Fold:
Amino acid sequence: MKRLLTEDQLREGVQRLAHEIGDSYAGRPLTIVGILTGSVVLLADLIRELNLPLRVGVVQARSYHGATTERGELIINSDLMPDIKDRDVLLVDDIFDTGHTLVEVVAKMRELQPRSIRSLVLFRKEGRQQVKHDPDFVGFSIPDKFVVGYGLDYEDAYRHLPYLAALEENEINDHPLDGERGAG
Ligand code: IMP
Ligand code: MG
Structure:
Protein backbone atom coordinates (compact mmCIF):
# COMPACT_ATOMS: atom_id res chain seq x y z
CA MET A 1 0.00 0.00 0.00
CA LYS A 2 1.24 3.46 -0.85
CA ARG A 3 0.22 6.35 1.36
CA LEU A 4 -1.21 9.26 -0.60
CA LEU A 5 -2.42 11.61 2.14
CA THR A 6 -1.42 11.71 5.80
CA GLU A 7 -3.68 12.16 8.77
CA ASP A 8 -2.52 15.80 9.08
CA GLN A 9 -3.19 16.55 5.42
CA LEU A 10 -6.67 15.06 5.71
CA ARG A 11 -7.41 17.12 8.82
CA GLU A 12 -6.32 20.30 7.03
CA GLY A 13 -8.50 19.41 4.04
CA VAL A 14 -11.53 18.83 6.25
CA GLN A 15 -10.93 22.14 8.05
CA ARG A 16 -10.66 23.93 4.71
CA LEU A 17 -13.98 22.43 3.61
CA ALA A 18 -15.58 23.43 6.91
CA HIS A 19 -14.50 27.03 6.33
CA GLU A 20 -15.93 27.02 2.82
CA ILE A 21 -19.22 25.65 4.14
CA GLY A 22 -19.30 28.21 6.95
CA ASP A 23 -18.75 31.04 4.46
CA SER A 24 -21.40 29.73 2.06
CA TYR A 25 -24.18 29.21 4.54
CA ALA A 26 -23.28 32.19 6.75
CA GLY A 27 -25.02 31.06 9.92
CA ARG A 28 -28.11 29.61 8.21
CA PRO A 29 -29.34 26.25 9.53
CA LEU A 30 -27.97 23.35 7.53
CA THR A 31 -28.90 19.68 7.18
CA ILE A 32 -25.91 17.51 6.38
CA VAL A 33 -26.66 14.09 4.92
CA GLY A 34 -23.83 11.57 4.67
CA ILE A 35 -23.92 8.70 2.19
CA LEU A 36 -23.29 5.41 3.98
CA THR A 37 -20.95 3.77 4.51
CA GLY A 38 -17.96 5.53 3.03
CA SER A 39 -18.72 8.97 4.44
CA VAL A 40 -18.85 8.03 8.14
CA VAL A 41 -15.30 9.09 9.02
CA LEU A 42 -15.52 12.32 7.05
CA LEU A 43 -18.97 13.07 8.44
CA ALA A 44 -17.82 12.68 12.05
CA ASP A 45 -14.79 14.92 11.52
CA LEU A 46 -16.50 17.53 9.35
CA ILE A 47 -19.51 18.20 11.58
CA ARG A 48 -17.24 18.88 14.55
CA GLU A 49 -15.52 21.64 12.57
CA LEU A 50 -18.80 23.39 11.74
CA ASN A 51 -20.18 26.25 13.70
CA LEU A 52 -23.71 26.43 12.26
CA PRO A 53 -27.13 25.27 13.48
CA LEU A 54 -26.82 21.71 12.20
CA ARG A 55 -28.94 18.60 11.61
CA VAL A 56 -27.19 15.40 10.64
CA GLY A 57 -28.64 12.45 8.79
CA VAL A 58 -27.57 9.54 6.64
CA VAL A 59 -28.74 7.87 3.48
CA GLN A 60 -27.57 4.50 2.23
CA ALA A 61 -26.51 4.02 -1.36
CA ARG A 62 -25.17 0.72 -2.48
CA SER A 63 -24.54 -0.86 -5.80
CA TYR A 64 -26.40 -4.07 -6.48
CA HIS A 65 -23.16 -5.65 -7.70
CA GLY A 66 -21.49 -5.09 -4.37
CA ALA A 67 -17.89 -4.24 -3.76
CA THR A 68 -16.53 -3.26 -7.15
CA THR A 69 -16.66 0.19 -8.67
CA GLU A 70 -18.26 -1.17 -11.83
CA ARG A 71 -21.71 0.19 -12.37
CA GLY A 72 -24.60 -1.83 -11.07
CA GLU A 73 -28.10 -0.78 -10.16
CA LEU A 74 -27.92 1.71 -7.31
CA ILE A 75 -30.16 1.04 -4.33
CA ILE A 76 -30.92 4.14 -2.27
CA ASN A 77 -32.43 3.75 1.18
CA SER A 78 -33.55 7.04 2.70
CA ASP A 79 -35.42 5.60 5.73
CA LEU A 80 -32.83 7.01 8.12
CA MET A 81 -32.88 10.49 6.69
CA PRO A 82 -34.39 13.44 8.58
CA ASP A 83 -37.16 15.48 6.95
CA ILE A 84 -35.46 17.72 4.39
CA LYS A 85 -38.48 19.54 2.95
CA ASP A 86 -37.72 23.29 2.71
CA ARG A 87 -34.30 22.83 4.29
CA ASP A 88 -30.85 23.69 3.01
CA VAL A 89 -29.18 20.33 2.47
CA LEU A 90 -25.56 19.39 1.95
CA LEU A 91 -25.01 15.86 0.72
CA VAL A 92 -21.63 14.41 1.73
CA ASP A 93 -19.79 11.49 0.16
CA ASP A 94 -16.30 10.10 0.45
CA ILE A 95 -15.27 10.01 -3.18
CA PHE A 96 -16.42 11.19 -6.60
CA ASP A 97 -15.39 8.54 -9.09
CA THR A 98 -17.70 8.10 -12.11
CA GLY A 99 -20.09 10.49 -10.35
CA HIS A 100 -23.19 8.34 -10.82
CA THR A 101 -23.79 7.74 -7.10
CA LEU A 102 -23.87 11.40 -6.18
CA VAL A 103 -25.96 12.40 -9.18
CA GLU A 104 -28.54 9.69 -8.47
CA VAL A 105 -28.75 10.45 -4.75
CA VAL A 106 -29.14 14.19 -5.45
CA ALA A 107 -31.97 13.44 -7.91
CA LYS A 108 -33.71 11.22 -5.37
CA MET A 109 -33.37 13.85 -2.64
CA ARG A 110 -34.73 16.61 -4.87
CA GLU A 111 -38.03 14.71 -4.89
CA LEU A 112 -38.28 15.50 -1.17
CA GLN A 113 -38.30 19.24 -1.99
CA PRO A 114 -35.39 20.67 -0.02
CA ARG A 115 -34.96 24.43 -0.18
CA SER A 116 -31.53 23.89 -1.70
CA ILE A 117 -29.26 20.93 -2.22
CA ARG A 118 -25.52 20.98 -2.70
CA SER A 119 -22.88 18.28 -2.57
CA LEU A 120 -19.46 17.76 -1.07
CA VAL A 121 -16.87 15.06 -1.59
CA LEU A 122 -13.54 14.67 0.12
CA PHE A 123 -11.85 13.08 -2.91
CA ARG A 124 -12.36 13.51 -6.61
CA LYS A 125 -10.58 11.05 -8.87
CA GLU A 126 -8.99 12.73 -11.84
CA GLY A 127 -10.30 11.79 -15.27
CA ARG A 128 -12.99 9.30 -14.20
CA GLN A 129 -16.19 11.30 -14.33
CA GLN A 130 -19.05 10.18 -16.57
CA VAL A 131 -21.56 12.83 -15.47
CA LYS A 132 -21.87 16.52 -16.22
CA HIS A 133 -22.26 17.71 -12.65
CA ASP A 134 -19.37 18.42 -10.34
CA PRO A 135 -19.72 18.49 -6.55
CA ASP A 136 -20.02 21.99 -5.06
CA PHE A 137 -17.21 21.35 -2.58
CA VAL A 138 -14.15 19.14 -3.22
CA GLY A 139 -11.45 18.39 -0.66
CA PHE A 140 -8.70 16.84 -2.78
CA SER A 141 -8.15 15.84 -6.39
CA ILE A 142 -6.42 12.46 -6.39
CA PRO A 143 -4.92 10.29 -9.15
CA ASP A 144 -6.95 7.48 -10.74
CA LYS A 145 -5.92 4.75 -8.28
CA PHE A 146 -8.01 2.49 -6.09
CA VAL A 147 -7.76 4.10 -2.66
CA VAL A 148 -8.64 2.96 0.85
CA GLY A 149 -8.75 4.43 4.34
CA TYR A 150 -10.56 7.36 5.96
CA GLY A 151 -13.88 5.61 5.31
CA LEU A 152 -13.04 4.03 1.95
CA ASP A 153 -12.95 0.26 1.73
CA TYR A 154 -11.75 -2.59 -0.39
CA GLU A 155 -14.01 -5.61 0.16
CA ASP A 156 -15.15 -3.99 3.43
CA ALA A 157 -11.62 -3.74 4.82
CA TYR A 158 -9.40 -0.74 5.59
CA ARG A 159 -12.13 1.83 6.31
CA HIS A 160 -10.63 2.59 9.71
CA LEU A 161 -7.18 3.62 8.48
CA PRO A 162 -6.62 7.26 9.51
CA TYR A 163 -4.72 8.03 6.27
CA LEU A 164 -5.49 7.57 2.57
CA ALA A 165 -3.58 4.85 0.73
CA ALA A 166 -3.57 3.47 -2.81
CA LEU A 167 -3.67 -0.29 -3.20
CA GLU A 168 -0.94 -1.85 -5.31
CA GLU A 169 -1.94 -4.07 -8.25
CA ASN A 170 -1.11 -7.28 -6.38
CA GLU A 171 -3.22 -6.23 -3.39
CA ILE A 172 -6.33 -5.79 -5.47
CA ASN A 173 -7.13 -9.49 -5.89
CA ASP A 174 -6.52 -10.35 -2.24
CA HIS A 175 -9.47 -10.79 0.07
CA PRO A 176 -8.20 -8.75 2.99
CA LEU A 177 -10.63 -10.00 5.64
CA ASP A 178 -10.35 -13.70 4.81
CA GLY A 179 -7.38 -14.32 7.10
CA GLU A 180 -5.55 -17.56 6.42
CA ARG A 181 -7.60 -18.29 3.32
CA GLY A 182 -5.38 -15.62 1.81
CA ALA A 183 -5.42 -14.42 -1.75
CA GLY A 184 -8.00 -15.74 -4.15
P1 IMP B 1 -19.20 6.67 -8.35
O1 IMP B 1 -20.67 6.42 -8.36
O2 IMP B 1 -18.50 5.97 -9.48
O3 IMP B 1 -18.81 8.12 -8.25
O4 IMP B 1 -18.61 5.90 -7.13
C1 IMP B 1 -18.85 6.27 -5.87
C2 IMP B 1 -18.65 5.13 -4.91
O5 IMP B 1 -17.78 4.10 -5.39
C3 IMP B 1 -18.00 5.71 -3.69
O6 IMP B 1 -18.97 6.20 -2.79
C4 IMP B 1 -17.21 4.55 -3.17
O7 IMP B 1 -18.05 3.76 -2.33
C5 IMP B 1 -16.86 3.71 -4.38
N1 IMP B 1 -15.47 3.98 -4.84
C6 IMP B 1 -15.10 4.63 -5.96
N2 IMP B 1 -13.76 4.69 -6.06
C7 IMP B 1 -13.28 4.07 -4.96
C8 IMP B 1 -11.93 3.81 -4.48
O8 IMP B 1 -10.90 4.17 -5.07
N3 IMP B 1 -11.84 3.16 -3.30
C9 IMP B 1 -12.94 2.75 -2.58
N4 IMP B 1 -14.20 2.97 -3.00
C10 IMP B 1 -14.37 3.62 -4.18
MG1 MG C 1 -19.46 4.76 -0.89
Residues 38, 69, 93-101, 146-148, 152-153 surround inosinic acid (ligand 1) (CB under 6 Å). The two ends are 18 Å apart (CA to CA). The chain has one domain: 2-142.
